[in-house]
Specification:
33% of the residues lie in helices and 23% in strands. The protein is an alpha/beta fold. The strands form four sheets. Strands 9, 10, 11, 12, 18, 19, 20, 21 and 22 form a nine-stranded mixed beta sheet that branches. Strands 2-1-3-4-6-5 form a six-stranded mixed beta sheet, with helices on both faces. Strand 14 (391-396) and strand 15 form a beta hairpin. The longest helix is centred in the middle third of the chain and has 28 residues, at 266-293.
């Protein structure tokens, strides 16, 4: 895909767009129709970003130059003032249809924090709209579109095999069962209710007994503006030098994965982040439906509403206020002294622990207990579950349609298959090429007693320039029923192998988590014996992560239905679980869903291919 930008851009923005499938031609901003038509016919972009009307004859010549390709106009308009932008997964609606059936999308210029116009952000927003248009049209015309060959409705009791028993697939299984499918599940790990050692499980059950929903989970970690600090160097440094590299050795796929991470330019990262937030918003709507219609699943899981976000750095707090307001998440905002007054559990935190805080919409649960509730509910409904049984092979016919999966107990044959494998499943990686996009990023966990006065709200803690840069602190209970705080934090890139962890580097992340505990809860930290006392609750889980920071949603044919892969949701699997389930249900019925486009495994590759073909842009 290729885009043409005719509005003036700064040299730094032009440099950031170089080689990214975007051609900057500010010389065309005031060009006559003949010159513009000639450029469109020569460059053949799928979208033009402009702030001026385009003549009918120009549109005709452009359409004639690209008769088989969908094209669009993205027009920047004047700012509407302070925008409260609530991202949705459906993208921006068409503003008008121009002659020759060419759609036009209008994008108001984005305001900056001072009430002016942020021209760079405006351009990136316009390019995000152009990229979404092109991806949507690719999805409609591409060869990966699958129409299921079963009855297409739940009334026929089509059968579904869920491969993987993490929280995403359990939520999906619950929805499919409610829609009338005959659901079964197989998982390589033990039954989550069995209480085996945490090392026997994947990220959902192996990590801390805590998950959180907010509108900004699963954030994109690329630079999203030209002036933003380049975060790609974290893969070159160990945690002791504020990096993410915890590997013992370099894997054969590691360099390509980092290269792909680095190829995501700020305009593309902005597009991805908007789509992630839109899916989060839909996930929030669906979680509310779950809370209202399935309240028994949330009984006795220590459900806590609203999250207090703390920021150690004042400038980061200011930016966060703007952002949380923009996504419509803010409930209240406080300075440092007011945080200590309103949340007495934080009264004795270190003087520099936080510059202030923002209460945002969201909730937390004890996820192990929630999973147990789901499993009990599924089992009571007749869902068949088999644990400690890995899938060894995906069986296919001569057309490559999936006909079953092979296990040590023999073949399992169903109409549909939904695979949610986490990270590091070697057998599935060999047979599902898109899973090579998934690497591991570990997070560390520790638990301390919830003292007196007790913390009532779960926390998100931001510590800029710290190894434990982001931390979730969830209020819950331990196995004895005592109120505790579960701290999850840190990033440790393992490469494609989740076992590829240097123990010394891992301990550096654990030490950073301990430092956050001491900073916020010094009395509790001292009571448990400090760093030594915290070691008894240490654990880690390895989260599935992609270089694009997008999840993966892939649909292909099965013998009598669909074969669906959902993967790579980094820190947002729980937050997006109900919208992933919704997308799976749509796929099994042969119905479109925005996630099918937004998380398509070829989405980033299509842009990279354009980058390779276009080369350097003209300035």
């Amino acid at each position: 895909m290729r885009f043409l930008v005719t509005v003036p851009v700064s040299p730094s923005v032009a440099e950031s767009l170089a080689g990214s499938g975007v051609r900057c031609r500010p010389d065309l901003h005031g060009a006559d129709d003949s010159t513009l038509a000639g450029a469109l016919s020569e460059i053949c972009p799928q979208a033009i970003v402009t702030d001026r009307p385009i003549g009918r004859e120009v549109l005709r010549l452009w359409r004639e130059a690209m008769p088989e390709k969908p094209v669009a106009v993205v027009r920047l308009t004047e700012s509407h003032g302070t925008l409260r932008r609530l991202p949705t997964m459906y993208g921006r609606p068409t503003s008008a249809v121009l002659p020759f059936g060419i759609p036009m999308y209008t994008v108001p210029r984005q305001p900056d924090a001072g009430g002016g116009v942020d021209e760079d952000a405006s351009l990136f927003e316009a390019l995000a709209v152009a990229e979404r248009f092109a991806q949507d049209r690719e999805q409609l015309t591409g060869p990966t579109r699958v129409m299921t060959r079963s009855s297409g409705t739940a009334s026929g009791r089509a059968s579904v095999l869920m491969v993987g028993g993490g929280v995403v697939n359990l939520v999906t299984a619950r929805l499919l069962h409610a829609e009338g499918y005959d659901v079964a599940m197989v998982d390589a790990a033990p039954d989550p209710r069995a209480g085996r050692p945490w090392t026997a499980y994947g990220a959902s059950r192996g990590g801390g007994n805590a998950r959180m929903f907010t509108y900004t989970e699963m954030d994109d970690y690329h630079a999203k503006s030209v002036g933003e600090l380049d975060c790609t160097t974290v893969f070159d440094r160990p945690p002791s030098r504020l990096g993410w590299d915890v590997r013992r050795h370099e894997g054969e796929e590691d360099r390509q994965w980092v290269q792909d991470f680095r190829r995501v330019r700020p305009w593309l990262a902005r597009a991805y982040n908007g789509d992630i937030l839109g899916l989060n918003r839909r996930g929030g709507e669906l979680w509310q439906t779950w809370l209202q219609t399935r309240p028994h699943l949330f009984d006795d899981v220590d459900l806590r509403h609203d999250i207090l976000r703390l920021y150690q750095d004042g400038s980061q707090l200011k930016a966060a206020r703007h952002r949380q307001n923009a996504v419509g998440a803010t409930v209240a905002s406080y300075g440092s002294a007011e945080v200590r007054e309103r949340f007495p559990a934080l009264a004795h935190a270190a003087t520099d622990a936080f510059a202030g805080g923002i209460v945002v919409e969201g909730f937390t649960v004890n996820v192990h207990d929630f999973m147990a509730r789901l499993l009990d509910d599924l089992e009571a409904g007749g869902v068949r579950m088999r644990f400690d049984l890995p899938v060894e092979e995906i069986m296919r016919d001569e057309t490559s349609a999936v006909t079953g999966v092979l296990t040590a107990d023999g073949p399992l044959i169903y109409d549909h298959y939904v695979v949610s494998p986490g990270v590091g499943n070697d057998a599935l990686r060999r047979q599902i090429p898109s899973l090579h996009q998934v690497h591991g990023v570990l997070g560390c966990w520790a638990t301390v007693p919830n003292g007196t006065p007790a913390l009532e709200h779960s926390l998100k803690v931001a510590r800029r320039g710290h190894v434990a840069e982001d931390a979730n602190i969830t209020v819950g209970r331990d196995e004895s029923g005592e109120s505790v705080l579960m701290i999850g934090s840190g990033y440790g890139w393992t490469g494609s192998d989740p076992r590829n962890i240097d123990e010394r580097k891992l301990q550096d992340v654990h030490a950073a988590v301990a430092d956050t505990v001491e900073l916020l809860f010094p009395e509790a930290y001292e009571r448990i014996g400090g760093r030594d006392g915290l070691r008894g609750s240490q654990k880690h889980c390895v989260r599935p992560w992609t270089a694009s920071n997008l999840g993966i949603f892939e649909t292909s044919a099965a013998g009598n239905g669909a074969f669906v892969v959902t993967a790579g949701h980094n820190t947002g699997g729980f937050a997006q679980a109900p919208v992933i389930a919704e997308a799976v249900a749509h796929a099994l019925r042969g119905v479109d869903h925005p996630m099918h486009t937004l998380y398509h495994p070829l989405r980033t590759r299509r842009v990279f291919n354009a980058m390779a073909g276009l080369g350097k842009v003209s300035h």
